[in-house]
Design a protein that fits this description.
The protein has 128 residues and is mostly helical. The chain has 2 domains: 63 residues, Winged helix-like DNA-binding domain superfamily/Winged helix DNA-binding domain (Arc Repressor Mutant, subunit A, Orthogonal Bundle); 33 residues. Helix content is 53%, strand content 7%. The chain has 6 helices and 2 strands; from the N terminus they run ααααββαα. A hairpin with a 2-residue loop joins strand 1 and strand 2. Helix 2 packs across helix 4 and helix 3 crosses helix 4. GO terms for molecular function: DNA binding; DNA-binding transcription factor activity. Keywords: DNA-binding, Transcription, Transcription regulation.
Length: 128
């Protein structure tokens, strides 16, 4: 666990993308899934860098990207926090969780899943 936030920082590195992109991808997933709720304190830059074995600048870049996406709020001298998030409808979140689990089991990359979703988004919605 992160010494100052309750976030399992080692889990942040478990992604197909390395460096700051990997940190952004992992925290984006944690925030959007609700595992990191609105208002949750983010690990300190130095603490997360030490746990992941990366330079503080790598984490700083990742936090900057997360802030530009509206996922976290940073303030000098204060811990970064998860920004207020709109909740995804439970049915959508459940479907996405099933999709992600299936993609992982089948070895389908994030990019491939995104491409398929992008293609299907523009198609008429199927009647279920």
């Amino acid at each position: 666990m992160g010494a100052d936030s309750g976030v399992d920082c080692r889990a942040c590195a478990r992604t197909d993308v390395s460096g700051s992109d990997g940190i952004v991808a992992r925290f984006t997933g944690l925030i959007r899934s609700g595992e990191l709720p609105s208002g949750a304190e983010m690990p300190s830059i130095r603490g997360l860098a030490a746990e992941l074995g990366v330079a503080p600048g790598t984490v700083r870049r990742a936090y900057g990207e997360l802030e530009s996406q509206g996922l976290i709020v940073t303030s000098a001298g204060r811990p970064s926090r998860v920004a207020e998030q709109e909740e995804a409808p439970c049915e959508v979140l459940a479907a996405v969780q099933v999709l992600v689990a299936a993609a992982h089991r089948q070895g389908v990359s994030r990019r491939e899943v995104q491409d398929v979703i992008g293609t299907m988004w523009d198609m008429p919605a199927p009647e279920l």
